[in-house]
């Protein structure tokens, strides 16, 4: 407290502004970090949803256009390209060549897949079970830890919505023999219509989310810091010009008056509180002049009448 009391007026204002500034930076930094992280997640989620819809279009095209054209060949040769999940996965791998999407990863995580590369891991299986228990039709997203690091994921349920899917996944006895020959009869069967069997999952390294949020945070805080620095400079400039300097002049004038120079005048340069203070000091100076003049006349009168003052 003593340190603060010994500071000049401009220094006190600067110190208070700096404390407010630091507090504002810390509070706004925390709030902005949360908001910007959520915005980055929302942006990536929108991109992931768009990619999922694209993959669904690939699945639909494969199921309705490609598969019927090659169904006869399935009797002699199994073609993975006729499987919607396979086509979607392969198309996405081609799509990942684009630099903006090279870190995205797509998987149709299935509890009981024909192709074991689509087998859901423990975490994905929990998501699928949640979808099944809640008969969920929306999407979930969040962060998860993996051996390669933390990732951000978006998942949607995969539901058996067409009878044609059961031609390959109801039982080994009705599945194409060439498919059984390639993948065996132990996996990918006993599915039923409208059953949720897996989840479409798109993931991206969490650093991509956090990096986007950090870049936005640094940019916004940089603008905020620059604006506040300019504000501090302008406040100090205004304070010195219109408050500190006039008060210093009044101090010098008051010192001159206290030394006997009653002709010294307080300069009034504005009509604000500082100007009113200067005006009040001028009235006080005038009153002091009048009092001093009356005292001088009184002393002169006492001396001329031979009173006690004449002996001084």
Structure description:
60% of the residues lie in helices and 11% in strands. The protein is built from 8 helices and 4 strands, in the order αααβαββααβαα. Strand 2 and strand 3 form a beta hairpin. It has 2 domains: 11-217, no CATH class; 228-305, no CATH class. The mean pLDDT is 82. The radius of gyration is 42 Å and the shape is rod-shaped. It has helices at 2-5, 9-70, 84-95, 122-134, 166-169, 177-183, 206-258, 273-304, and strands at residues 105-110, 140-146, 149-159, 196-205. Strands 1-4-3-2 form a 4-stranded antiparallel beta sheet, with helices on both faces. The chain has 312 residues and is an alpha+beta fold.
Can you summarize this structure?
The chain is built from 8 helices and 4 strands; from the N terminus they run αααβαββααβαα.
Q: What ranges have pLDDT less than 50 throughout 5 or more consecutive residues?
A: none
Secondary-structure element pattern, one letter each:
HHHEHEEHHEHH
What is the straight-line distance between the termini? 50 Å
Question: What's the total helix number?
Answer: 8
Q: What's the total number of strands?
A: 4
What strand order characterises the main sheet? Answer: 1-4-3-2
| Gross morphology | rod-shaped
How many strands, what sense, and barrel or not for the largest sheet? 4 strands, antiparallel
Q: What is the domain total for the residues?
A: 2
- Sheet/helix structural class: alpha+beta
Q: Specify Rg, calculated over alpha carbons.
A: 42 Å
Strand share of the residues?
A: 5-15%
**Helix percentage:** 55-70%
What number is the mean pLDDT?
82
């Amino acid at each position: 407290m003593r340190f603060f009391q010994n500071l000049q007026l401009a220094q006190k204002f600067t110190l208070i502004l700096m404390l407010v500034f630091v507090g504002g930076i810390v509070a706004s930094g925390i709030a902005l970090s949360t908001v910007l992280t959520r915005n980055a997640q929302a942006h990536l989620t929108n991109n992931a949803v768009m990619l999922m819809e694209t993959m669904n279009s690939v699945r639909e095209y494969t199921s309705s256009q490609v598969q019927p054209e090659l169904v006869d060949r399935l009797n002699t040769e199994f073609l993975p390209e006729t499987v919607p999940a396979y086509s979607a996965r392969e198309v996405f791998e081609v799509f990942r060549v684009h630099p903006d999407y090279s870190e995205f990863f797509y998987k149709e995580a299935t509890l009981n897949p024909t192709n074991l590369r689509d087998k859901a891991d423990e975490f994905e299986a929990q998501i699928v079970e949640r979808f099944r228990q809640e008969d969920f039709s929306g999407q979930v997203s969040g962060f998860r830890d993996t051996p390669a690091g933390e990732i951000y994921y978006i998942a949607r349920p995969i539901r058996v919505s067409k009878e044609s899917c059961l031609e390959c996944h109801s039982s080994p006895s009705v599945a194409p023999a060439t498919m059984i020959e390639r993948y065996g009869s132990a996996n990918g069967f006993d599915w039923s219509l409208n059953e949720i069997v897996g989840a479409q999952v798109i993931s991206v390294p969490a650093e991509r989310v956090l990096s986007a949020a950090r870049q936005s945070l640094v940019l916004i805080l940089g603008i905020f810091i620059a604006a506040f620095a300019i504000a501090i400079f302008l406040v100090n400039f205004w304070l010195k010009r219109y408050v500190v300097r006039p008060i210093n002049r009044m101090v010098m004038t008051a010192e001159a008056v206290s030394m006997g120079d009653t002709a010294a005048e307080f300069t009034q340069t504005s009509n604000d509180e500082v100007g009113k203070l200067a005006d009040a000091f001028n009235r006080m100076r005038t009153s002091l002049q009048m009092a001093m003049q009356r005292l001088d006349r009184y002393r002169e009168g006492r001396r001329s009448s031979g009173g006690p003052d004449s002996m001084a």
